[in-house]
Structures are given as C-alpha cells and as structure tokens.
Amino acid sequence: MDSTQSALYRSRAEAMYANDLTCQTLGILLDDVGPGRARVRLRVAETMTNGHGTVHGGYLFLLADAAFAYACNSYGPVAVAQSAQVTFLRPAAIHDELVADAVERARSGRTGIYDVTVRRAARDVIAEFRGHSILLAGKPPNPPGGA
Q1: Which of 5, 46, 84, 108 sits 20 to 30 Å CA-CA off 96?
Q2: What is the SS3 assignment for 38-84?
Q3: Quick check: pTM over 0.85?
Q4: Could you report the per-residue pLDDT of 60-79, keeping only the tens digit for each?
Q5: Tell me: the pLDDT tens digits for 79-104?
Q6: Looking at the domain assignment, is residue 142 inside a domain?
Q7: β-sheet bridge partners, residue 128
Q8: Domain annotation covers residue 95
C-alpha cells in the first residue's frame, strides 16, 4: 500500500471519528487504520466499573465495536453492524489500557465478517468479538474532513 492509499484510509477514519461523539467522550483513541483493519485504545476510568469492581462488559463490547466500525468502514462505502457477539475471557480493571485490534476475515458483496481482539496493554486477551457488517445501499461515505 502506497502513502496515498494509506492517507485515504486514515482520512476516512478521521472523518468518521470527528462525528463519533461516543468515542471522543469516553476517550477511545484511533491508533491505526488500513484496508479492513483498525486499532483503537482506551484507558479505563473508575466510572466504567460494574458492581464487582471490574470493567462493565458494555464498555468492552463498545471498544471492540468501535474497532470493528473503523475496520469495516475503511473502504469507503458506509457499513453498519448487522450482528455482533462477544466472549469475555478475563476481567479488566480501573486504569488498564485496553487495545482492540480489528481484522477482516471475509468480505463478499454487501457483507463482511470481522474479528476483534481486546487486550490489556497488548498482552492478556480480555475479550474476543465477531462482527458481521452490511453496506448501506445508496448511503455515501462521510467526506474526508467532516460530515
């Protein structure tokens, strides 16, 4: 992939991030994006814990879903989740830095399958997520630089 293609993938992701108030509010950062892949990260805040004192599963799902969204939208046409599921493997704690890596497994027609691994500090696997995407017919992508 040349630098022009790389810049195009990045500009698409940055345009999407500019409209993603959830990620911005929670402090989810976009680290990397490329064709069918993305990496996001999050530092866990105290307000993200459940009644057991560990990170609420909804935040783990949201982090994985964000990586999935950037990966499946990397090509340009608007893609949304058709379905998704997560398997929680280990608890995460306050102040952990979590990294979610999304990778495309298959893409055919209007659908795609993406796997996301959520790790603590790029070591321990916290959760595994699988998302199925679908392209929205007639919906153009966000233009680079904003909506």
Answers
A1: 84
A2: EEEEEECCHHHECCCCCECHHHHHHHHHHHHHHHHCCCCCCEEEEEE
A3: yes
A4: 999 999 999 999 999 888 99
A5: 999 999 999 999 999 999 999 999 99
A6: no
A7: 87, 117
A8: yes
